[in-house]
Write a structure and sequence with these properties.
Helix content is 8%, strand content 33%. The protein contains three helices and 14 strands. The longest helix is centred in the N-terminal third of the chain and has 9 residues.
Length: 244
């Protein structure tokens, strides 16, 4: 278990103004809570803090906090950063006892190549961290999950994993840690003929209706009777065929 030393100073002032002045000095406000005691206001150097948790355990690094009035064992529990500069603005520590279990989140580490993945399946990991309960000095680095034997459609439940020595899982036993999903088949889209599409070969465009079929509504009269019937011959002038 990684363990580092962090020095802090007590502070009596609170509020935005004192916090800004503290940051202008290269420090940040911090609070230690836990063990049913009143929270303790502190100031720490953010660079020293980040260096202290620069271990394989990261946030689960056990810190020996050197502070006036008595040293404390703490875990770096929460923080605030500037949304623009991403600089650390505030830190929260959880005081712990070495003989009392604590709940922490431990990263999930996937090992092996799933059989289902080689067959075309998709490996899915519902969560990348699991909550465990362990003594501060027994917090595991990772929770290893071997998916080598996992086939398409199969899953691994939390009950199938062996908790690291000195740890207990705090998730439900039937919680799915990993599974291989069946890949979805691509749907074949059948093209639909557009309205007004060119008719297929053999079906003459604008073919004449069958014999005897009634003409379509509003259709022009057939050619046989162009303009109805031929216009009658011009009427003979009266008496044109009489000899004088």
């Amino acid at each position: 278990m990684s363990q580092n030393v962090l020095t802090a100073e007590r502070r009596d002032t609170k509020g935005k103004g004192p916090a800004r002045r503290l940051r202008s000095q290269g420090l940040i406000p911090a609070v230690v809570y836990g063990l049913d005691t009143k929270p303790t206001a502190l100031s720490v150097d953010p660079k020293v803090l980040m260096a202290a948790i620069d271990t394989p355990h990261k946030f689960n690094t056990l810190l020996s906090l050197k502070v006036e009035g008595g040293d404390k064992f703490v875990l770096f529990k929460d923080y605030q950063v500037d949304p623009v500069s991403r600089r650390l603005l505030h830190a929260d520590f959880l005081e712990v006892k070495l003989d009392k279990p604590v709940k922490v989140e431990v990263p999930v580490k996937i090992t092996g190549l799933s059989i289902g993945v080689t067959e075309g399946g998709i490996l899915s990991i519902p969560t990348h961290e699991l909550v465990v309960e362990a003594l501060p000095e027994k917090i595991p680095l990772t929770i290893d999950v071997d998916v080598t034997a996992l086939k398409v459609g199969q899953s691994i439940h939390l009950s199938e994993l062996k908790a690291p020595e000195g740890c207990k899982f705090k998730f439900a036993a039937d919680y799915v840690v990993a599974f291989v999903a069946i890949p979805e088949k691509e749907e074949v889209v059948v093209p639909v003929a557009a309205v007004g599409a060119v008719p297929a070969e053999g079906a003459a465009a604008g073919a004449a209706p069958a014999a005897g079929a009634a003409p379509a509504a509003g259709a022009a009269p057939a050619a046989a009777g162009k303009a109805g019937a031929a216009a009658p011959a011009a009427a003979a002038k009266p008496g044109a065929d009489k000899k004088k």
